[in-house]
Amino acid sequence: MENVFDVLRQRGFIELTTGDQAIYDLLEQPITCYIGFDPTASSFHVGSLIPIMALAHMQRHGHRPIALVGGGTALVGDPSGRTEMRQMLTPHKVSQNAKTLKKQLSRFLKFEKGQASLLNNAKWLNQLKYIPFLRDYGRHFSVNRMLTSESCRSRLETGLSFIEFNYSLLQAYDFLHLYRTKDCVLQMGGSDQWGNIVAGVELIRRVEKGAAHGITFPLITTTSRNKMGKTAEGAVWLDPKLTSAYDYYQFWINTADADVMRFLCLFTFLPLTEIDAIRNLRGSDLNAVKTVLAFETTKLVHGEQAAKDALKASYGLFGIRIIDSQVLPSSSTPRDIDSSELESIPTTVIDPDRLHTGVPAFELFDEVNLCASRGEARRLIQQGGAYVDDKRIETFDSIVDDKYLNKGEILLRAGKKRYHRVKVKSKPLKKIHDRKRIKKNH
Questions:
Q1: Which CATH architecture has domain 4-217?
Q2: pLDDT by residue (tens digit) across 78-117?
Q3: How do the residues of the chain divide into helix, strand and coil, expressed in percent and rounded to 5?
Q4: Would the pTM count as exceeding 0.85?
Q5: From CA 417, how far away is CA 46, in angstroms rounded?
Q6: Which of 56, 205, 246, 323 measures 20 to 30 Å from 230, CA to CA?
Q7: What is the distance between the alpha carbons of residues 171 and 27, in angstroms, rounded to a whole number?
């Protein structure tokens, strides 16, 4: 089997290592590795996919991954990449988040029969006694060296609390604990974790006289230099309650041309030989490749059926046709969409009385999150980028009312590809009958 180090290198996962040849040799045999995950949110977002995919590649090549939830370190707060102190969470909230994160990780990792583990460092960190910890482990850390690490140095101007200063010690101890109890010899993480990873490698060498290694991943940004997974509307979450499968699909299908090949390598398991075969495609020829990227990434996170539904909805809305299981761009105009395809489109239900009165278009576009604010909605409409049932809205204060209803629904569009469905809330039968009775009496 191919060495996973070559796979990670070729796909663009590796930025720094504690020694390329040493790690390559280490990975010739099955090993245990780990990555720490911050449980301060109830869901991962797209920015978390690099470490998740790295663990999945490790498992697919016969290694044993550990996903370590920082239940203990989250109570301290990692200063890395922050300009201010992180919000403190209760142990109960961290535990709740850890359960939902494991469910999302299960899309990528097999936890059955010990093939992978999900651990919470609160189990051992909460048992530490402060004075013995300082005597046994704190003496191995140089304050001067810690202050030069990226996580500390970037915070010195704005202020670094003493509790955050301890974070590096605790993460290093995590590595030592996993080395002792799980025979874990490799830690991986984002580029901002390099100092913390090296601290763990050094602690294992000093305390156990053992050899451990580290790999960091590059910070993934788009060609527009935006942080991966961040949009004007906010983070793109893996939880369908926070980001629907349709919106998730749309995020990927709107990938810039220059990012497509790189993202196929990083965020899908498609063979590199297949990706290389389409590397020279340009312009409109890339549309089919973007569809493959969107389908594969959505399938990994939301399952194959949800990916098919999102593809089917895009098929109706954007004129995509499927021929012999290949997704190809269509030059024809979008056809009418049926109800099953609309189910995949984000939907807002509003009161029929409100729609009967009418809602200014800029308010409605803001309300359903097609725009980040009412000001942005005004600009979108003034620039001719807002539509109601494919009819361009001419003025920002145009009224959208029940005259636009088509089978109880209105389809809104922002730009070329962002759709939202508005449905009317059903009225209780009694009220409907009362209205009919009043109308008849009149």
A1: 3-Layer(aba) Sandwich (3.40)
A2: 545 444 445 667 778 888 888 889 889 999 999 998 899 9
A3: 50, 15, 35
A4: no
A5: 20
A6: 56
A7: 23
